[in-house]
Amino acid sequence: MAVRAGYALALLLAVVILNFTLIHIAPGDIADTIAGDMGGATEEVMAQIRADYGLDKPFPVQLGIYLGNVVRLDFGYSFFFNTPVTSLIAERLPATLLLVFTAQIFALVIGVVLGVISARRPHGLLSHFVTLLALFGYSAPVFWTGIMLLIGLSLLLPLFPVAGMIDVALIDAPLWRQYLSVAHHLFLPALTLASIFLALYSRLTRASMLEVLGADYIRTARAKGLSERDTVYRHALKNSLGPVVTLAGLQFSAVVSGAVLVETVFSWPGLGTLALQSILARDTPTILGILFFSALVVIVGNLLTDLALRLIDPRIRGGGG
Amino acid sequence: MATPLLEVRDLGVRFTTRDGQVTVLDDVSFTLERGERISFVGESGCGKSMTALALMGLLPAMGQVSGGSINFKGEDLATASEARMRQIRGNEISMIFQEPMTSLNPVFTIGRQIAEVLQLHRGLDRRTARARAIDLLEAVRIPNAAARVDDYPHQLSGGQRQRVMIAIALACEPEVLIADEPTTALDVTVQAEIFALLRDLGAKLETAIILITHDMGAVAQMAERMLVMYAGRRVEEGRVADIIKAPAHPYTRGLIACVPHISTDATRRLERLPEIDGIVPPITSFGRDACLFAPRCGRASEVCHGERPAPAGVAGHKAHSVACWHPHEGGA
């Protein structure tokens, strides 16, 4: 596990350097934005702004300074929002984490259940329906799915709120009312984000389950006199989860990037919305900070996947690791 | 004599395939007494395992019993409900398989897999079932059982895994244990140990054992009676000693001739082992009214190709029967 943590740190460092370089290569900087807001500026003023923000120094020096700051967990100051980047992100990260994890859990639970059901009758009507649903979920663009759900379940049939994370009227309400309101607001965005991954997980569960159901130890389970339900849900399911959890781990970064789109559609006050705003404003420190924390979320997600796999399969647990 | 523990009469099994129905088992009959050891012998695809699966009510989805009866302690298992079969499986009739490496669930401890049958059929609670699982591991001679009970299957050798399978199968002290080629995947030395274990435990628990094998050596070690099967039919049945000394069916004779004997004179040049020419006929022809071994048989005549031979007693031996138009007589 210590080795894995070491890899994770090295990966994080590489991500920081790569991001910084890429942003530096991209045309335009904060001076352009400020000049634009001022309605134009002379070369001297532009040079003055760049000098103020340290943008006139050579690239390696800028990178060195930035890395030094990141090590001290200082992500700089947002020129655009006039706040330290750290507090900006601290404000937004919980919302994104909530969305991302809820969506993953939705996708995994629904996906696995659908997959198992369709594996038990691989040529049944329900199995075909699941295949169709999976194909649809996977091919529909996530923002479109979101908008359709909004139209269907917020406008035509007003079951869920259209935007935001909590009902502002509840600011003084008891905590449980607030939690309930957040859950209410969370449902549609999480379902939208889950729709893509749900498809993948249900297909993989189906395939993996079909393979496991043919295994010798399933015959043993039946020969013990276990009921069909115990055989499938106790003996087969745990064995077929391995590939699904592995895929869920690999997809974690995709879920995080999908969250950017979903947050925008549902005005969910998370990192995604912030990312969009800061990119448009060429707010480099904020962008870099968001990228850093997104990478961190993905890395932590992968470590959690490893942990989950160890829990499921004792063969991975054994020896070192 | 009282009614036997298990009496299978004219058991037939059919598969429904895309090309229609095929007969897999054709009028198989045998009896099994309490504590008796019988062996089913024959080449692959002769219906030995299918007979066993029919007894367990575990035929593949495309198969069904098409006739006959399986009388077990006064109850016909061929028509028993699935719920009733579940009560019997692993409890009164249990089974171990050919592949110990893959027959245990890799994600559960062996202790839990043993305890599971006890909780299911005996209603034991977790703690008692676990304690009993340790006793069973000791009974199947796994050293340091109390420490091994929490091991996962991948931490055990093939022989040990088969011992665990035996512990699972015998946990509820069944009346019948079906062992489907239990040692084929194991080393010869381990084979002998497993057979010794099965014999000892079977005798102790008065469990009747059905050993499925194509290994004549195993038959001689393990069984009192044997049933030779060919193409889904019983071709010869009798006491092991009688049949090995004087096989009546040409097929049985061929099977026995295939077994290499350790020469008393080790320097003698080994002769080429005899083999039975040809192969088992395609499954689609299993139901035909003919002797299905005739195309491979040196003694075949007109009648063999056109009429099905009925089982008949063999002179001089008690309970020795053969289904052949031209059986061998006297010693081998």
What does it look like?
The complex is a heterodimer of chains A (321) and B (332). Chain A is 78% helix and 1% strand. Chain A has helices spanning 2-25, 30-38, 43-52, 59-71, 85-120, 125-139, 142-156, 175-213, 216-223, 228-250, 252-266, 271-280, 284-312, 314-317, and strands at 77-78, 83-84. Chain A has a two-stranded antiparallel ribbon. The mean pLDDT of chain A is 87. Chain B has helices at residues 48-56, 82-88, 100-103, 110-122, 126-139, 145-148, 158-170, 188-205, 216-222, 240-245, 250-257, 302-306; strands at 6-17, 20-32, 37-41, 63-72, 75-76, 93-96, 176-180, 208-213, 225-230, 233-239, 312-313, 321-322. In chain B, the strands form two sheets. In chain B, strands 6-7-8-3-9-10-12-11 form an eight-stranded mixed beta sheet, sandwiched between helices. In chain B, strand 11 and strand 12 form a beta hairpin. The two termini of chain B are 32 Å apart. The model of chain B has no long low-confidence stretch (mean pLDDT 89). The chains are: A mainly alpha (321), B alpha/beta (332). At the A-B interface, helix 9 and helix 10 of A face helix 2 and helix 4 of B.
Give a topology summary.
The complex is a heterodimer of chains A (321) and B (332).
Chain A: H1 2-25, H2 30-38, H3 43-52, H4 59-71, E1 77-78, E2 83-84, H5 85-120, H6 125-139, H7 142-156, H8 175-213, H9 216-223, H10 228-250, H11 252-266, H12 271-280, H13 284-312, H14 314-317
Helix pairs in contact in A: 1-13, 2-3, 5-6, 5-8, 5-10, 5-11, 5-13, 6-8, 7-8, 7-11, 8-10, 8-11, 9-10, 10-13, 11-12, 11-13, 12-13
Chain B: E1 6-17, E2 20-32, E3 37-41, H1 48-56, E4 63-72, E5 75-76, H2 82-88, E6 93-96, H3 100-103, H4 110-122, H5 126-139, H6 145-148, H7 158-170, E7 176-180, H8 188-205, E8 208-213, H9 216-222, E9 225-230, E10 233-239, H10 240-245, H11 250-257, H12 302-306, E11 312-313, E12 321-322
Helix pairs in contact in B: 4-5, 4-7, 5-7, 7-8
